[in-house]
Amino acid sequence: MGLISESLVFPEQTFANNEEALRFLAEKLNAAGKVHDDFFDAVWAREQKFPTGLPAGKINVAIPHADAKYVKESAIAVTTLAKPIQFHNMALTDQELPVSLIMMLAIHEPHGQVQVLQNAMALFQDEKHLAQLLAEHDAHTLFADLDKTLAGISLDQ
């Protein structure tokens, strides 16, 4: 089984701010049994110190995550946003970015985030593909696209 499942893909969500969005995804991962109860707290604390907003041309993404010790089983939760919300830029931390896609990583293997990020970067650099993902209204179709796109990611679970 891959890192992404249809039950953790949420198209066209609306959130007041990045904290609300991160809490939503962390709670979905927790309900699926993928993370420990303190996962959100760890993700939020990390986001404050090491922002995860990534400029990707016209469509910006965020890749929040926490240390492996907060994860029971590796998974990725994804949401596209009906309206962008602000995240701090990971490279220029005083700069805010309007983010339209959030890919929350829950990776159980130490240093596994690096491998997942390397594999996901092709997606983040493809503005046309990102635009297609944002235009998708159906969770099943969005999942199918992401599953195919991220199929090469394996962490030897």
TrEMBL record:
Keywords: Sugar transport, Transport. InterPro entries: PTrfase/Anion_transptr, PTS_EIIA_type-2_dom, PTS_SugarTrans_NitroReg. The keyword Magnesium does not apply. Residues 2-149 form the PTS EIIA type-2 domain. SUPFAM superfamilies: Phoshotransferase/anion transport protein. The keyword Lipid biosynthesis does not apply. This is PTS sugar transporter subunit IIA. The lineage of its organism: Bacteria, Bacillati, Bacillota, Bacilli, Lactobacillales.
